[in-house]
Amino acid sequence: MVNENRFWNSFLLPYELAVSGFIIKLESLRKEFLFKKVSNPIESISGRVKTVSSILEKAERLGIDFQNIAAEIYDIAGIRIICKYRQDVYKVFELLKARKDINIFLIKDYIKEPKPSGYRSLHLIAKYEVETVDGRVPINIEFQVRTYAMHLWASIEHSLKYKYYRKIPDEIRERLLAASIVTAQLDEEMARIKKSIDEIVVEKVRPEEYELDNIGLLLDNINKR
Questions:
Q1: What's the pLDDT at 100?
Q2: pTM for the whole thing?
Q3: Which end of the chain, N or C, is less packed with Cβ atoms under 10 Å?
Q4: The domain containing residue 39 runs over which residues?
Q5: Count of structural domains within the chain
Q6: Kind of pairing, strands 44-49 and 222-224?
Q7: Which residues are catalytic?
Q8: According to the model, what pLDDT value does residue 202 have?
């Protein structure tokens, strides 16, 4: 048992370093947008590293051999970026695509092609090399980029999946699908409002506020699920 715990602690450490590092990097980027008083596409950033039980459950469900977990489970490390508007989701995508420290090799656009459940989000899977005391460790990291409306719907669906052990009753599933259509309509309307706002010329704009008293606030966003 001790050796097993040591193995998993060692296995997960690069993922934890990657998540904490990217939260700081993206918060710094967000802060730079605000300081320069330019359009900021990033509203909030959070991250998580999958628990051992969650990793093993997913490997079993997908038929992934134990020795292939690191290569074939892409979301052991996850970063979630929330945006106000749908067009900002794709601005964030361009920002991530331009980064030199990651190599995006898989794009799953569930906004343009939602899942049958109604789930909408942009998933970007990237290769990333983590700097450790033992040298560089290559890992996969997943970025989920979505709007507030998409996030509200996804959070509720996620909690229901756990409540019903992935077997959500048909009636609730149908209502979730209907709700996803409403959230998509909300995002469409907000996108139109954003476009109208951008076309209005004003002499003075009140800047957005940014408060960050302690780097611990960033690290508090990391959770294990």
A1: 95
A2: 0.87
A3: N
A4: 2-224
A5: 1
A6: parallel
A7: 142
A8: 61
